[in-house]
Amino acid sequence: MNLKRLAEELGLSQTTVSRALNGYPEVSEATRKRVEEAARRYNYRPNSRAKGLATGRAMVIGQVIPTSVQHEMVNPIFGDFVAGASQTFSRYGYDMMFSRVPDVDESDIYREYRARGAVDAVILQGPLVNDQRIPLLNRIGLPFIVHGRSTGITEPYAFVDVNNTRAFQHATEFLVHLGHRRIALINGLEGMDFAQRRRAGYEAALKAAGIPVDPALMRSDEMTEYFGYRETRALLAQEDPPTAIMAASMIAALGVRRAIEETGLTMGRDVSVITHDDDLSYLKNGQDVPIFTAIRSSVRKAGEILAQCLVDQINAPDAPPEQRMLEADLLVGRSTGPAPQRT
Amino acid sequence: MNLKRLAEELGLSQTTVSRALNGYPEVSEATRKRVEEAARRYNYRPNSRAKGLATGRAMVIGQVIPTSVQHEMVNPIFGDFVAGASQTFSRYGYDMMFSRVPDVDESDIYREYRARGAVDAVILQGPLVNDQRIPLLNRIGLPFIVHGRSTGITEPYAFVDVNNTRAFQHATEFLVHLGHRRIALINGLEGMDFAQRRRAGYEAALKAAGIPVDPALMRSDEMTEYFGYRETRALLAQEDPPTAIMAASMIAALGVRRAIEETGLTMGRDVSVITHDDDLSYLKNGQDVPIFTAIRSSVRKAGEILAQCLVDQINAPDAPPEQRMLEADLLVGRSTGPAPQRT
DNA sequence: TTGAAAGCGCTACCAA
DNA sequence: TTGGTAGCGCTTTCAA
């Protein structure tokens, strides 16, 4: 069923039917009723492409997934983010679209999105330090919002980010407070903006406590299970091994745990760990929530908020870009104990 | 830049330019060269909506995400599946679209997809036993493929599934072989097709070994961390507790581990566990691969295969539906040991 | 080998 | 309050 046939059935013009269905005020109540009833009866839905062609709006939000395996998409919490975002988007009639492209072509796809008119806006995931996609998107005039931020980019852009610096500063302070002085940091790739911020928080807390920052305790790579495993083994085999480890990813944390256990040590006694591992409880409002559940629900929330910001931006393109900071909760539990006495 | 302007610039008709760009044979080589060069220069991309309107194809694959929190989307390996699928899709020029809908409206969205012409085909996730979405999709003529199968549906449909029955049968046999006779099964919701198949494999192995199937050892619910935790505590507190536990989900397994540790037992010694937990090694071709990595890569592969089947189906709509079975590897590792002696 | 023109299904302007 | 009609940007006959 299309508009033309529906109009014929009703003995009305396409114009009137379209207006009735789109809530225009100049349609008589009687006509509108009749039209709506018929539309329901014939299960009529306007064709998206025709509508989009006529209005210039796609009602689709794009998201680009670089091909390289270890990126966002394969992060297990990515699904939660998408679930949150798409919930908000669907309330406003937007669908989400994913395009997978080879890393090298990533900037091409944005031009293509723009030229093809395939999407109304895009979400930028996993921003790098000084991420050139931001100026690019501004230049080609494709509305976007960044999930995270990008140090070094001075032009304005909208983002929703978690206060990574503060979270890692607090976590480090907490470990220092427990008596730890050899605290390792298993971090993401240095090029990732969040990784730099996390390191900054970690270093700030150490400096404030008068503890020297030791490069031998800091590791940085793509956050895989193996990375966490390999570096934890190496850290624990060192001359003066860490008494605490902060792992910046749930995936890497799996490897951290395994390495500790294989070394014959006990988490929370011989080595403290602050991470997203399940072994941790989640202290939030004094409640003990399974950690994985908690993280996933907050990521989901972030998705909802980000989507709302993007919708607002699309509807008010001239407003200054929204920039939202979310606070991360401190992740502490059974695996985090006082520093062991060493002789 | 659009076709009309491009044609004007070239002093050609839209028809010729279109033909040149779409590889029609009747265009002279010289003209094609000239057109392609100009298209590149002006960074011309055909408008998706206009093209779709004219051709009747959307070049988009839909996926519906029910609103209920615990569904597929929030399964941490969902992202891997999507990554695999979208890689294949993008090779054929398809994008993936996600629509989030309240559970009650789930069948509406398919009619809407069809009516709106928003997608060319859909992927059906998490099929139930006797899933009525399958006859619905057949009825409305929207091409689809099921990730999994649906017992009780007799009409033909395409699917890609993992042999859950065999995987759980093998796993159970393996535990029996190690001397276990009290083997618990922590399973997904009974309504889910895969849950029934897993249980069938489990029961078949027990029966073959002459071990009675004990309902007190079988738990079924949405696979959350808490579910795994709660039921494992309960199982271990029973009169005659299990010596082995099979957990059918990575998430639930987090809770299983926690419950075992809190009970003061040791995995692999007091209780054997077969699951997707990180503690396990992954025996595959004799190699020791981190379990999480292994699972995720095979899910990714499943996504690629499924996407290929769907593309084939779109291009040859009259061919019989493809039905692919993938074998699951047995997940066994450090947490799986011989049955403890009980007096 | 090229071009003119009729749609695809809808919105939005202008007229009635 | 309603209708006629000109696009939106493309593909695809049909004609030349």
Automatic annotation (TrEMBL), chains A, B:
Highest taxon, organism lineage: Bacteria
Keyword Membrane in record: no
Pfam families in the cross-refs: LacI, Peripla_BP_3
Sorted UniProt keywords: DNA-binding, Transcription, Transcription regulation
Domain HTH lacI-type: 1-55
GO molecular function, one term: transcription cis-regulatory region binding
Keyword Transcription regulation: yes
Name recorded for this polypeptide: LacI family transcriptional regulator
Source organism phylogeny: Bacteria, Pseudomonadati, Pseudomonadota, Alphaproteobacteria, Rhodobacterales
